[in-house]
Amino acid sequence: MTTATTTHATPAAGAPGGPRLRGYRAGDLPLLTGSWLPGELLGLPVPGRPPLADPATVPPPASDRPGDELYVLPGTAFVRFTEVDWIHRRARLETGFAPGADAHVRALLDAALGHARGTLGLRRVYGWVTPGRPGAEDVLRAVGLAREARIPHALWLDGRPVGRQIWGMCSDD
Question: Where do the record's region annotations for Disordered lie (predicted)?
Fold first, then answer.
């Protein structure tokens, strides 16, 4: 297993002039279903996904899941902080993008990490990444994330086991 950690100073939430996340509303429900892999940090549609494959679905907020925070970039993507640990100030980050929203990936990740550090006061944010998408690692590094671990045979996909990675960051207080 390979490990690494990236540390950041805590900035104000979101980049100036960048996209702003807002809380989930019932009208955002279509954003919660798509052709990405469930639980992905970089939830882009999977190329070559069979047309009859069940879409991934994220549940809307509910009072029986107090460790979830759900936000949207209207019409473009959702950002979900799950397994939120308010004591140790850490959470797993998931995103899901609408078809054709690939151009917004970096801006959304910047907004999500700014929101995590600034608004939510989280010190550690991490997520699962299934490698293989060209340019994905460059985008993840550009927003300040580092690959922390490689897990072989972590997921069954397209009839075979595939590895996954954990990417994350830590913020200074």
Answer: 1-21
Residue tagged 């996909």 (tokens): 157
Residue 92 has phi, psi (to 5 degrees) of -90, 135
The domain spans of the chain are 7-46+67-171
What is the C-alpha to C-alpha distance for residues 51 and 64, in angstroms, rounded to an integer? 33
Residue 92 pLDDT level (bands cut at 50, 70, 90): very high
Take residue 112 and report the two structure tokens written for it. Answer: 């999500």
Q: What does DSSP assign to residue 119?
A: I
Residues with Cβ within 8 Å of 13's Cβ and at least 6 positions away in sequence, in order, are 114, 115, 117, 118, 119
7-46+67-171 has which CATH code? 3.40.630.30
pLDDT in tens, 48-90: 666 667 788 888 887 777 788 999 999 899 999 999 999 999 9
Q: Model-level pTM?
A: 0.82
Contact 1, 166 (CB under 8 A): no
81: closest CA among 64, 102, 61, 103?
61
The dihedral region occupied by 52, where left means phi > 0, alpha psi between -120 and 50, and beta the remainder, is: alpha
DSSP state of 116: I
- Give the integer Cα–Cα distance in Å for 108 and 76: 9
Residue where the block lists tokens 């960048």: 18
